[in-house]
Fold:
Amino acid sequence: MLRTTLAQLRAHAGRVLASCLAVVIAVAFVVATLVLNSSASASLLKAVGAPFVASAAVVTAEAGTDPAAGTAALRTAAEPVSALPDVAQVFADREADVQVRLPGRSGSSYAQAGAVTAPGPLRWESTSAGRLPEAPGEVAVSDRLGAAVGDVLDVERQPSGDADAPATTTQVRVVGVVDLRGDPTAGLYGRLFATEDQLRQWGAADVSRLRVAAAPGADGDQVAAAVAGAVTGGLVVRTGEEAAQDVASTFTGDAAALTTVLLVFGAVAVLVAGLVIANTFAVLLAQRTRELALLRCVGATRGQTARSVLLEAAVVGLLASLAGAAAGVGLAALVSRVAADADSPVPLDELRVPVHALVLGVALGTVVTVLAALAPARAATRVAPLAALRPLVAAPVRSRGGLLRLVAGLVLTVPSAAALAWFAAQGVLEPAVLAGAVNFVGVVLLSQRAVPVVVGLAGRLVRGAGTPARLAAGNAVRNPRRTAATATALLIGVTLTTAMVVGASSTRATAGGLLEAGYPTDVVVSSWDEPVDDALLQRLGEVPGVVRAVPVLEGEVSLGELGTTGVLGVDPDEAAAVVRSQQRAPVPAPGELVVSGYAAGALGLAAGGTVRISAEGGSPVELSVVVAPDSEQGVLATAADLRRADPAAVVRAAWLRLDDSLDAAGQAEAVDAVSEAVAAALPSSDVSGVVAVRAAFDQVLTTMLLVVTGLLGVAVVIALLGVGNTLALSVVERRQESGLLRALGLTRGQLRALLAWEALLVAGVAGVLGVALGTAYGLAGTASVLAAEGPVVLDVPWLRIAGIVVVAALAGVLASVLPARRAARTPPVAALAA
Structure:
């Protein structure tokens, strides 16, 4: 039977090639998804946690430890850690906040200065221009600072712990520009890199952490364990990877959340691949039932026939899966290159090909192909040889098997739909994905009943379009199994595409809302000593790119038994024009005290309660407590209420809103201009351009969605291939029927039109049903990912959804072109003789 099986593969190369191509693309889809997921995670951790890439261990003080005590403990630990046999280098990181005055600017900008790593395996800094500093008086800068190699900067540093001491100013020369591409935090503020001696001169006495590198050949985990044993209490030892993940979490909330969409995408891709392969290969083997029966007539046993089919499926699945795995890696590399060329904030510059991705892809393609062949092989061996040689009549939908599929579909669909809704509302991702996968399997089982009915209803709308249309409407429902099989291929692709489009749009809208809640104002100006006067507010409002500048009062009030707290006061009407998220970061109304979630917990305040605020020289004011869980703005009251309670409250801050039309570069220029204006009037002040935080988050989402969009193209190709395969096999199955129609007078053009109309009906119905299913899955997926983070914004891009339906219908028509052409070119006599 082995020779017979190989001979059958050679004899039916065309049909085998069709199923091979489906397996190749489906496996490539899965492998590309898993590779891109791994690459995105690796690139993100490499970019955000670059200082820890080469670290075997990172030692920090326990949370809440006094900085001086933590520094002393870290300095004490440095010597015994350095003495460990497998340690190659130990470096103590130190940082300082400084004000930098650039050449040609009257004001100064905030920057964070850090010690450049000493030469050795721990050095992670690299330059895009110039070199790294080697002596005091030299610095390297980040692009965000806006300085070039050769510039001389004035660096002002306030001594740590002594606000009354005069600030020291040092002139330094820029000798290099550090390459921070790929780090989404790079655009938040300017950064300086100087030698350890220079940092000490600036008063940076505190050590933030120790980074430890393992010696060549040493095991990193063993080194981390040895370091943990060498340090005393009060210090925490983590691996470099753990430290990188922690840094990413402080910026994004959770590094894994950025790739959650891709993880869900990979899970759905596995399901889609299995359904597409099973559908295509099952239809292919169904066409060969008579051929297999002929083998039975010439002496092949049932077991031999079944083994022949399964062996053929295994060979096809294995070879196609290997090709698909290679294609998937190539596709991932292509998408990574596109993302890198797009100058995204997290370029996929590190292609990771995990072994499990290749193994899973090959195993998936092979196993699913073999499983897809089980039912046709079993059907071929159970039919008597002579009976199987008669014309094959498909089992009716209302058969016992059809009834079992209907019951199974209902059993899978109804409970899983309820479970999916519940898990999505609770924000539980993994069970929601499982429920969605089970639900989709149930929907596919029910589609054999539902699709022909819907196609029949749609066929009534086109009966008046001529003879080919009327014949197509009848053909589309004459064989429900064939119609359902053709529609299922496109239904899968459209459902997946719609789910990703709706999910991406809703994810972006929800993330944007969460960012606006956390950072509701674009720029915050805070003064430490002197008040912000009206003249400065006017100048800020005239800065190019600034739309509005609103004064913010600051006072200290007593809450009675709850203690004292600082309160910000704003005019409700003016603040409403600046705050971007009124829903999640509400502006207080008269008589209200708006408290952020963390402040409410710290002060013991509850939503709906009342609290009396007062201060020396003022009148007690009773306010209603409004808790804003997503806000980061502390405690807010109206300016009028705060002045009544604390007459000594003064304007020490300003909220600014930037022009919505500004891009990231324009926003950075506006923040720099604001910093310059503030520095000239208020030397001891801080300008926080939190708009850059929102922009960085938005760019990260854009990068991830760009990857998803690239994978959607593969999903469309899979759907088109499935439709084309099924239509082609359907045309082969109906050669005699087509020949009879031609013999009765149907022209070649009319036969092509008949098949095109039939494809349009089936594809149009599949498109509409797929859009409905995909929209529901997309919204449920978004809710399951983000519901735990805050209110979910469900955003359905109706224009793109309508475009998907149109594209699906056109795709069906285009997929029918080659099969229709083949059918039309076959002479009627030859077709009838087949």
Summary: The two ends are 27 Å apart (CA to CA). Confidence is low (pLDDT under 50) at residues 252-259. Residues 335 and 710 are 7 Å apart (CA to CA). The first strand starts at residue 57 and ends at 61.
